[in-house]
């Protein structure tokens, strides 16, 4: 299979999925279970991305300075720190762990 054929096939699939989303009846989207699921989906996807980026390294599971940054961010969020401060604290703690230990 050529590269361009794969690109065209992927484009067709993406277009079909978007078209299917527009063709879903509005009554289905107003169902309480669907609304509840749609409201929770962004948080679940973000959490999954954070875990994959923090604990993954290719096909291995790793524990390095990123985990320390995530732990500090979680603590700062639990203490209701402003989001910008959470980011700065997480980055600084991960950088500190890397500088002190050469870890990660």
What is the terminal-to-terminal distance?
A: 39 Å
Contiguous low-pLDDT stretches (5 residues minimum) are none
Give the tally of β-strands: 2
Q: Provide the spatial order of strands within the biggest beta sheet.
A: 1-2
**Strand content range:** under 5%
Strand/helix succession: HHHEEHH
Percent in helix: over 70%
SS field, number of helical segments: 5
Sheet with most strands = 2 strands, antiparallel
Shape: flat
- Tally the structural domains: 2
- The mean pLDDT is 92
Rg, alpha carbons: 20 Å
Fold topology:
Layout: H1 3-23, H2 26-29, H3 32-55, E1 56-57, E2 60-61, H4 65-78, H5 83-101
Antiparallel strand pairs: 1-2
Helix pairs in contact: 4-5
Characterise this structure.
This protein is mainly alpha-helical and 104 residues long. The chain has 2 domains: 1-30; 41-104, no CATH class. 79% of the residues lie in helices and 4% in strands. It contains 5 helices and 2 strands; from the N terminus they run H-H-H-E-E-H-H. It has helices at residues 3-23, 26-29, 32-55, 65-78, 83-101, and strands spanning 56-57, 60-61. It has a two-stranded antiparallel ribbon with strand order 1-2. Strand 1 (56-57) and strand 2 (60-61) form a beta hairpin. Helix 4 packs antiparallel against helix 5. The longest helix has 24 residues, at 32-55. The radius of gyration is 20 Å and the shape is flat. The model has no long low-confidence stretch (mean pLDDT 92).
